[in-house]
Amino acid sequence: MSCVALFVDFENMQRSMRYSTPDLKAILRFAERLGRVIIRRVYLVFAPKSLIDAAQKAGYELVLIPYHHWKPNLVDINMIVDLVDKGSLSCVETVIVVSGDGDFEPAVRKLREKGKTVFLLAAQSSVSETLKASVDSFLSYEELMETHVELPATVPVAAE
User: pTM for the full model?
Assistant: First the structure.
């Protein structure tokens, strides 16, 4: 079974969805269809206790940027470093980026150079076309939330 690394830019997804909360459980269920999820991280600046509890209950590791240390793009910088570092592990075959932010394109390019399959999940209304063009497969968050979503033909379903 393929190993998967899942990286969620919570701030970007929440802004893209007009400050609705992304369904982290649905995102994780989708990732599990692609393989065994060995890394699952959510990056954000601020989170109410209910969100922290829900994310941890779903098995996510939270990467919280303290608000008093916050600077523009600090969430992105942390996620980019982890994408290249953790996504490059030899046991990881598939990397899922949950964000529409074009700042991730160089990291995605580097992962693909290393032979990783990179999947993008983002809100259709705010995904960077450059980022979208740089991945192996794209699925909009809106499609994910529809019932009975099928995996794109370019993404192999994990063997049971």
Answer: 0.88
Query: How confident is the model over 140-151, as pLDDT tens digits?
Result: 999 999 855 555
Q: Could you identify the residue written with the tokens 């509890």?
A: 53
38 token code pair: 């060995």
Domains in the chain (CATH in brackets) are 3-88+101-125+135-145 (3.40.50.1010)
In angstroms, the CA 30 to CA 48 distance is 25
Find where tokens 């990286």 sit.
7
Closest CA to 10 of 66, 72, 64, 86: 64
pLDDT in tens, 57-81: 889 999 988 766 667 788 899 999 9
What does DSSP assign to residue 45?
Answer: S
CA dist 19 and 6 (Å) reads: 21
